[in-house]
Amino acid sequence: MSESQALITNDAVVFGILMLILAGIFQTSASANPKLKRFYSIVPMLLLCYFIPSLLTTFNIVDGEHSQLYFVASRYLLPACLVLLTLSVDLREIIRLGWKPVAMFLAGTIGVIIGGPLAILITSTFAPELVGGAGPDAVWRGMTTIAGSWIGGGANQAAMYEIFGPSDQLYSVMITIDVIVAEVWMAFLLIGIGKQAAINKFFRADSSAVDRLRDKMEHYSLSITRVPSTADLMIILGIGFGATALAHGLADIIAPFIQENAPGLNRFSLTSGFFWLIVIATAIGVGLSFTRLREYEGAGASKIGSIFIFVLVATIGLKMDILAIGQYPGLFMVGAIWMIIHIAILLVVGYIIRAPYFFLAIGSKANIGGAASAPVLAAAFHPALAPVGVLLAVLGYILGTYGAWLSGILMQMVAAG
């Protein structure tokens, strides 16, 4: 590993800077200052939580590539927050949302699967050199890793890297394209939240089921709300990290067992320890929602889970180098075409089935972003809706590697064509 040339390389210092940034964003977003209120009515707070940390990497103040903060946040804080966010979930009410959220999720998955091959086909008509290459440097091989990330997440992305074998340099470029294109789309989704009434009207959508779920879960939360004691907070942390420990322990047993006895299942991410970590943590949280532990929502379980998510978001921002757009403009254009196809399919299906904007947004982010982004976006609609994002994201992990593998085969066929 090459030595970092960044100004700050100590992760303890970087973490402190990230927490100060988050504190500043939360402080200003809650301000009564009219100018700040106007600013945050245009620029979503969550977008700043990604963007400002990215500037630290872009200007070489910190080294996002070598920092271990994302690894810690994704392996420790993410599973803990999934448990705490699903602790009070009302599964029956989520089921009552019906088939439309699943339909929008599958529409997003199809958009990613066929979007990659179509992007190669479209680009090859006017700039074939952008989607060329041979052997490990073949662009289509690198794009399979984006497909894995955009259907499920990091575990699926890593699986595509192992299956299709792009070069390390190409893989690095594709990670940058993946993150930046996905976060640009995230910015548009966040902006759309403020315009969801107009979007729902255009789609002729009935959002009453979403409103009912939001109101019921919010009412439940308010009915059990209390001033948390030190014991409450310690128990909440014990639930979150205890479940994380159990999820890690089981994942360390299940993944190697499947790898040894059924290695062919790696196409479905079933040999990935991270996949089992996310699935088990979510299952524990849903299971605990049927016990009295769900009443710790009243002491702030989901609020602590949300804090963990925002820390994760900031560490994701560290991995973004916005100047990379200028270094690889052609490949970013390919990624943008791919994303536009994904969006177009979502819009068409959403209009046909009259899906509320919430279903469109979460259906997309449960694919593109997975467990790290879907609950964040759902919580931006309303904190009580975060579990919907969690559960759809798990579905993304299950389908991710298979869908990305299919997309990779199609991209190979188009590139060879």
Description:
With 417 residues, the protein is mostly helical. It has one domain. The chain is built from 19 helices and no strands. Helix 4 packs across helix 12, helix 6 packs antiparallel against helix 16 and helix 6 packs across helix 17. The longest helix has 32 residues. 48% of the residues are buried.
Task: Give the arrangement of secondary structure elements.
Elements: H1 11-29, H2 34-42, H3 45-58, H4 69-86, H5 91-95, H6 100-124, H7 139-151, H8 154-164, H9 168-193, H10 196-203, H11 208-224, H12 230-261, H13 273-288, H14 301-318, H15 324-327, H16 329-353, H17 357-365, H18 374-381, H19 386-416
Helix pairs in contact: 1-3, 3-14, 4-12, 4-13, 4-14, 6-7, 6-16, 6-17, 6-19, 7-8, 7-9, 7-19, 8-19, 9-16, 9-17, 12-13, 13-19, 16-17, 17-18, 18-19
Shape annotation: globular
* Subunit arrangement of the protein: single chain
N/C terminus separation: 38 Å
Based on secondary structure, the structural category is mainly alpha
Number of strands: 0
Number of helices: 19
- Biggest sheet: strands, sense, closure? none
Strand content: under 5%
Helix/strand order, N-terminal first: HHHHHHHHHHHHHHHHHHH
- Stretches where pLDDT is under 50 for at least 5 consecutive residues are none
Fraction of residues in helix: over 70%
Tally the structural domains: 1
Q: What's the average pLDDT?
A: 85
